[in-house]
Amino acid sequence: MEPTHKKLRINRERFKQDFDELAQIGATADGGVHRPSLSPAHLEARAWFRQRIEQAGLVFRMDGAGNHSAFLRCGPRGAATLLLGSHLDSVRHGGRFDGPLGVLAALETLRVVNESGLALPVNFEAIDFTDEEGTLVGLLGSSALAGTLEKSVLQSPRGGRERLEAGLERSGLTEDGFFTVRRDPDTLAGYLELHIEQGRRLAASGTQIGVVHNIVGGNSYRLTFIGRADHAGTVGMEERRDAAQGACEFTLAVRQLLTEDFPGCVANVGDMAFDPGAFNIVPGRVAVSLEFRAPDVYLFDELERALLEVAASLAEQRDLKLNVEWLGKWDPAPMSPIVQNAITEAADSLNLKHMTLNSGAGHDAQSLAPLCPAGMIFVPSVDGASHSAREFTHWQDCVNGANVLLRAALRLAAER
Ligand code: GLV
Ligand code: MN
Ligand code: MN
Predict the structure, then answer these.
(1) H or E element at residue 324
(2) Is the C-beta atom of 70 inside 6 A of ligand 1?
């Protein structure tokens, strides 16, 4: 590796100061953050990010999908861009690390490269993608950038159309804007993302860096079991067409199906809405929020078929109707061997122990993977906790990850 690359390190204190400041925005009493996509707190975090970009003397850009970027022209005019990033939105009542760590490490990388005065064959961009978490759609900004966002998904987003419309209004974005931001793959040198592992494997094996080789696909449905609302006191148990029976039986069957027939896959019933929803009315309709994930396309399709079959068969057995609403998916994505190699070499250059692993969480990297060489660096999560205020990663691990991001980015740049 070139001597300049060997010397560069991120500024640990500046990185920490950014992290702590950002964690105050949307902070919750239990130490987490509540910054759902395009909520006031999320927009405040984005305004803060913009300010930090401008203070660093970097160029701020926002596209029609609301993706916020810092741009550093360190390459020749017309050079391709190496994207580094993640997201500033959180799940409802989430943690401080999921997303912000990668955005701030990307920003810090640009600042260090800028200060070094290095001339590279590519330009660098640190990007905060819109709605990674799927409180509205999921991988929204990154799929718009990749040109794979489907119009139908915006019509029935998994977070609900009303919430999407309110978010667009609040942020000044338009639906049409999302279809204007597709990037030509020729303009992209690659995509790199630092993220917490959100699982236990790194910590359990005493490994500092995870090199991601694959990201699972995720698919979302709303399945509504429809029976008949009735008086809960006067209608006998045998006469009822109780929608809750179908919904609950389905939830139990999901677990059985996954554990018996789909090892390596997961499924979640994360919400149920009862209608009318009262002590003394037999539930007429129950809407079930179903999400499932699989590591490869074959299993992903098989699992989808099996889950829908189980739902239909249980509804029939209970004399219920079933309404099936598809709410969007993101495909499984292998990570680029070139990027995996750059991460491995970067970790070796810092004497950090590394291992290859898959990601059970979704990430913007999977939107980018079909477009350009994409890869992810994981750092250990204490107790594997995530999507919760319990999320925690030791600062030394965050710094290690950011240094690997910086060095892997420089390696990828040099290989162009
Ligand atoms: C996002 O973090 C997801 O995997 O749901
Ligand atoms: Mn994330
Ligand atoms: Mn997440």
Answers:
(1) strand 321-330
(2) no
**Which-ligand-closest: CA of 218?**
1
Ion ligand 3, residues whose Cβ is below 5 A away: 98
For the CA atoms of the chain, what is the radius of gyration? Answer: 23
**C-alpha of residue 5 to centroid of ligand 3, in Å:** 31
Q: Which residue has the tokens 């995720």?
A: 218
Q: Structure pTM?
A: 0.95
Answer for the pair 36, 43: CB distance below 8 angstroms, yes or no. Answer: no
pLDDT tens-digit map of 284-314:
999 999 999 999 999 999 999 999 999 999 9
pLDDT (tens digit, 9 = 90+) per residue, 307-328? 999 999 999 999 999 999 999 9
What is the 409 CA–ligand 2 centroid distance (Å)? 20
Residue 391 Cβ inside 6 Å of ligand 1? The answer reads no
Strands 68-72 and 81-86: unpaired
147's tokens: 């040109």
**Cβ 75 under 6 angstroms from ligand 1:** no
Whether the CB-CB separation of 126 and 138 falls below 8 Å is answered with no
